[in-house]
Amino acid sequence: MPSHGELTSDSQSRSIDTVVAWIQRIYLPRRFVRCCPRLFKKNNPDGKNSNNDDNDKEHSVHDIPLISGVDHVVNGSLPASESIKICGIRPPRYLFYMLSGGLCDVLQLALDLFVHRVLVVEDPSLCWAIGFALSIVARHTSHRYLVFGKYVGGYWSSLGRMYAGYSIIIFLSTSFNFIMTRIAGVPHYMAWAITLLWTGVVNYFILKRLWSFGGQNNKENKKAKAEGAKQQVFIKRKERDLEHGADVRNHLGELKDSTANRRSLKDDAEIHARFS
Fold first, then answer.
1. Transmembrane residues, as ranges (predicted)?
2. Which class for 101: exposed (0-12), middle (13-18), buried (19 or more C-beta within 10 A)?
3. How many CB atoms lie within 10 A of CB 87?
4. What is the mean pLDDT of residues 23-42?
5. Looking at residue 168, what DSSP letter applies?
6. Residue 205 resides in a domain
7. Which of 12, 91, 104, 251 is deepest in the core (most CB within 10 A)?
8. What pLDDT was estimated at residue 70?
9. Domain that holds residue 179
10. How many Cβ atoms are within 10 Å of 59's Cβ, its own excluded?
11. Does some domain include residue 126?
């Protein structure tokens, strides 16, 4: 018999899947899509229009979801930068890096405030170094799901490489922060913001190299992406087959009705000829 913890975990998983499925069932209004020819052409290369009305419950294969690919992020098969599409268009990877980094910057600021005000550490450079070092664990997880994808060599190996790569940035940024606060006399959190601006850009290029680790992770992500694309093609093909089958059934029904009508007219003519 499953334990209470397993039942709770299964229930949470089903709830998350339900929310993700609901999000991915939100489609752009067709009138809006038809008003944007470039958007329609990009997501409907064969140029076919849907004949269904806006109030139809069933969606055509040519309908454009507001957001797609969330399920791949939740199950961890692909990062958001390689699976998420908004209105059928994939945003650039750096946008997801900014989102991931921004969330972790808020955490780093909270850690800096905690060290400065609760632990009463007066040195701004030391507060920066401690907050930055502690936020790397959160950055590691956030970048895995939003930007770069699966860990290469396992979680701990990837985290160790990240700390090794960030060690140079921690030293350089702490030194820069020290010069800003002690020599230039810049206030604590103004120097914190200035230091954050340039480290964010440099970190992206360091992480891009560290995470790929000789291209192994890129190969894994491309493989997962190819498998996901095959699944999407298979699903769309099935949907087209179903639509085609419905069209054939409707056509056969019309032929059947037409044949029945002709037989009825023929019978009426024979009866009329017999009694006339």
1. 163-183, 189-207
2. buried
3. 16
4. 66
5. H
6. yes
7. 104
8. 87
9. 93-214
10. 15
11. yes
Measured from the Cβ of residue 176, the count of other Cβ atoms closer than 10 Å reads: 17
Read off the pLDDT of each residue in 106-122 and give the average, rounded to a whole number: 95
In a domain, 172, yes or no: yes
Distance from C-alpha of 270 to C-alpha of 275, rounded to nearest angstrom: 9
Do the beta carbons of residue 147 and residue 80 sit within 8 Å? yes
Q: Of how many residues is the chain composed? A: 276
DSSP three-state, residue 195 = helix
Residue that the structure tokens 């850690």 belong to:
111
Tell whether 104 is covered by a domain.
yes
pLDDT tens readout for residues 40-95: 555 555 555 544 444 444 455 457 888 888 888 888 888 998 999 888 888 998 89
136: Cα within 13 Å, side-chain hemisphere: 21
Residue 131 contacts residue 166 (beta carbons within 8 Å)? no
The amino acid at residue 111 is L
How many domains is the chain partitioned into structurally?
1
Report pTM.
Answer: 0.65
